[in-house]
Structure formats: C-alpha cells, structure tokens
Amino acid sequence: MTETKPESESRFKGLFGKRGSESAESKAATEQEKYDAIDKQTEEWRNKQARGYQEHQHCSVCGRAIHLGKRYCSMECKNKFEGVQKKQNKNQKLMCCVMGAVMPIMLVVMMLFQR
Asked: pTM for this one?
C-alpha cells in the first residue's frame, strides 16, 4: 500500500493558500454567511424601491438624478449645455465654410496639373 502524506506535510503547502486548514463545516458556514449578506443587501434594495424611489433619469450635463421628462437639473446646467451647443454649431458652420472654400481650389489645381 502507498502511504499518503497529510496535507500539512505536502511540499506544495504554501503555494496554493491554506488548503485543508478549514473544515468542511467552517467553509460551508463562511459560504452561507456570504449568501446571507447578499440576500440582506438585496432585500434592502427592494425595500428602498418599495418606499418610493421612483423612475428617474439623469441630467445631461452633471448627471444628477432628476424627474422623468426633465432634461436638466437646473438653469445653470441648461445654460452650460446651450453654450456648448452654440459653440459646436459655430465650429460646424466654420468647418463647412472652410471645406466649401478649399474644395473648389483643390479641383482647379488638380485640373491645371492634369496635363
């Protein structure tokens, strides 16, 4: 018969964590505690929803929770958003004008050097 070494005498003892140091009962108890904690947290979340946390959305600028149907949480956020929109529109119009001016020039240059 072959003798098996106890895990405490194993040459791999420290490599893979504490193997065999806990009994099966203590491992099961630890796992049960983890599941109980998760169940408790889930129950707390459900209770919060039942107490009146309503459907909501978030402000487009700062991300605060706001009522459905609103887009911004305050006039300050609305003004910031409108300022950014105006700046983007201005940049888009400028880019279109630049491209509109550059494209005909490029076409003329290409036609001149084609021959």
From this structure: 0.46
